[in-house]
Design brief:
The complex is a heterodimer.
Chain A lengths: L4 H18 L1 H4 L31 H37 L1 H15 L3 H12 L3 E2 L2 E2 H8 L2 H17 L2 H8 L4 H9 L4 H24 L11 H5 L2 H4 L6 H28 L6
Chain B lengths: L1 H27 L5 H10 L6 H10 L6 H13 L13 H36 L4 H15 L2 H16 L14 H34 L3 H8 L4 H26 L1 H11 L5 H10 L3 H29 L1 H4 L2
Helix pairs in contact in B: 1-13, 5-6, 5-8, 5-10, 6-8, 7-8, 7-11, 8-10, 8-11, 9-10, 10-13, 11-12, 12-13
Classes of the chains: A mainly alpha, B mainly alpha.
Chain lengths: 275, 319
């Protein structure tokens, strides 16, 4: 903690955000969906700390509930993308040869798309599919671009581990490929995996905000930081700047916290990894 | 060297072929039918008969088997013909051409901004490692990774509106028509996307200089009494620059990602906006061309970077 002050600061913000997201019902002063035409575009005040939007909804409450959307999508997407990427990376390194060549070819193709371009294309292809209030296809769209980026880093680590004597020993003992991959190699790439997982939560929060801003992500009335910046917010630049300022601060702070924490985690676990 | 260049060049082909195949078949899985989107979208489907949709599909070649469609399209692409936009009816190359200048200019301006910030800041940060200078530059650059470029754009517009009553212009002035007006229009979006870009490059510069400072030749230079200023400027910076140039090149290729969202905010009619519109309208030919354009650019930048590495470091050529 004392050696990594920036990382500790990141962790504190993450914990606060997570608490807000978990206990949104008790933390938020208003219901995020309640429309109040009497209080439309009200500036920040004692009643509404961060003002209200064009429907009279409380901005602070929407940001607090928005943390739920951001963290849920961020964590699930990052977990999916990193886990899939790690498995493919280890498999590619373990088998080597033709398998490796083909997998690397496919990864090269995926890598030549910018994250947001690939995510938009996947969202367009899959459409929206909401389960329990979470858009499954949006999560898939955000995690697909992570796969090749994680795969590369994990493959590099796994290549070194493949040459370790204990892997030879396991092979000589006649263990199956699946067992060697999951029991002997996977546990040894946990360090890069955890570092990437944290870093990509930040990327996922940013991607969710961008997609929602473009109208391709979370849909109204679900509170989402990116969505709060789109539509009406841009029409009331001067009348209601609080509609723009605060959700953006929330996005930046969230991404900032995960980046800080991820950076320190890397310095602590494995300084050689390039993110 | 020639063998290396040739080998590296031929390696680009399967990647680009993969991109073309992936994009083409991915889009055919899309639930929306471009013809239905176009014809039913505005009219609400009131006067559109099934026959009209069918004849339009036949006109665009959408009634043929997928593989025939693919080879027709790909055969054209190889000859430089990207087909007709399914939405506007004009050629895809024309639609992209009239918007490319704008996006490219913003990208170039953002790059200049990023380089001007990253080289001095990254070096300072590395030299004064773990002091307050380093800490504040690191916070500045980590913040650059956190602030969404579209939100930064909105905040810039908000400030300009409040203090200068400036509103984003409705039309774009080409540089050669009125350079001053052109620059004053585009500096703000360039700033919005350039901040993140400079943050990435600053971090790379810092870690690269820190790595180089560990090298033996730096110790030698110091031992023979070279001024610290010259050690950094002549010995460290030059050798640290290569990875930074790579990052700058790759980020440039990926700037389109930042522009996709930022162009919406500044109401710029560029490549990014075109892409979002094409997706919303299921304009397959347009999406294919744009994605291919970005990938070709990315792969080319990668290729040039590899050549530069090989040119500067002969060990790479013989691997």
């Amino acid at each position: 903690m004392t050696q990594q002050p920036l990382g500790a600061a990141g962790l504190v913000i993450i914990v606060l955000m997570a608490l807000c997201a978990l206990f949104a019902q008790w933390v938020a002063p208003y219901d995020p969906l309640t429309v109040d035409y009497g209080a439309m575009l009200a500036p920040p005040s004692g009643a509404h700390w961060l003002g209200t939007d064009s429907f009279g909804r409380d901005v602070a409450s929407r940001i607090i509930y928005g943390a739920r959307t951001a963290l849920a999508i961020g964590f699930i997407a990052s977990f999916l993308g990193c886990t899939a990427g790690a498995i493919v990376g280890v498999v590619s390194a373990y088998f080597g040869g033709k398998t490796d060549l083909i997998i690397q070819g496919v990864m090269d193709v995926l890598l030549s798309f910018p994250i947001i371009v690939l995510a938009i294309t996947v969202v367009a292809v899959l459409g929206n599919y909401v389960v329990l209030g979470i858009d499954v296809n949006l999560i898939i769209a955000i995690s697909v671009p992570m796969l090749p980026r994680v795969e590369r880093v994990v493959r590099a680590s796994a290549l070194a581990i493949r040459e370790m004597p204990y892997v030879d020993a396991a092979r000589a003992a006649g263990y199956s490929h699946v067992r060697i991959i999951f029991r002997h190699i996977m546990p040894n790439v946990v360090a890069p995996y955890l570092i990437l997982l944290t870093a990509f939560v930040a990327q996922a929060i940013l991607a969710e905000a961008s997609l929602s801003f473009l109208g391709l992500g979370v849909t109204e009335p679900t509170p989402s930081w990116g969505l709060m910046l789109s539509g009406a917010a841009a029409d009331f630049y001067q009348q209601a700047p609080w509609m723009i300022v605060f959700p953006g601060i929330a996005i930046s702070l969230g991404v900032f916290a995960f980046n800080l924490f991820g950076d320190s985690l890397r310095d602590w676990l494995d300084p050689k990894i390039k993110l | 060297m020639l063998r290396f260049v040739l080998h590296r060049f031929l390696m680009m082909i399967p990647t680009l072929l993969g991109v073309a195949v992936l994009v083409f078949f991915l889009l055919r899985l899309m639930p929306g039918d471009p013809v239905a989107t176009m014809l039913l979208g505005d009219a609400g489907g009131a006067n559109i008969s099934k026959e009209m949709i069918d004849s339009e599909r036949a006109r665009l070649g959408l009634d043929q088997p997928l593989w025939v469609q693919f080879f027709k399209w790909f055969g054209g692409v190889v000859q430089g013909d990207f087909g007709i936009s399914m939405w506007t009816g004009k050629s895809v190359a024309y639609e992209i051409g009239i918007r490319l200048e704008l996006s490219l200019q913003v990208a170039v301006m953002a790059t200049i901004l990023a380089v001007l910030l990253a080289l001095p800041l990254g070096t300072l940060s590395a030299i004064f490692k773990d002091t307050w200078i380093d800490q504040s530059i690191r916070v500045f650059s980590i913040a650059g990774l956190a602030v969404p470029s579209f939100w930064l754009g909105m905040i810039i517009i908000l400030l300009l509106l409040t203090y200068f009553s400036w509103i984003p212009p409705l039309t774009f002035t080409p540089f050669f028509q009125n350079p001053w007006e052109n620059l004053s229009q585009l500096i703000w979006p360039a700033l919005a996307v350039g901040y993140r870009y400079s943050a990435v490059s600053t971090r790379m510069m810092r870690s690269s200089i820190l790595e180089v400072l560990q090298e033996d030749y730096i110790r030698t230079a110091r031992a023979k009494g070279v001024l610290e200023r010259l050690v950094v400027a002549r010995h460290a910076m030059r050798n640290a620059l290569l990875p930074v140039v790579t990052v700058i090149g790759l980020e440039f290729a990926f700037l389109i990602g930042g522009l996709v969202v930022t162009e919406q905010v500044f109401n710029l009619n560029g490549i990014g906006k075109l892409f979002v519109q094409a997706v919303a309208r299921s304009d397959f030919t347009m999406i294919q061309a744009l994605v291919l354009l970005v990938s070709v650019f990315f792969v080319l930048v990668n290729f040039v970077m590899d050549l530069m590495y090989a040119f500067l470091d002969p060990r790479i050529r013989y691997r």
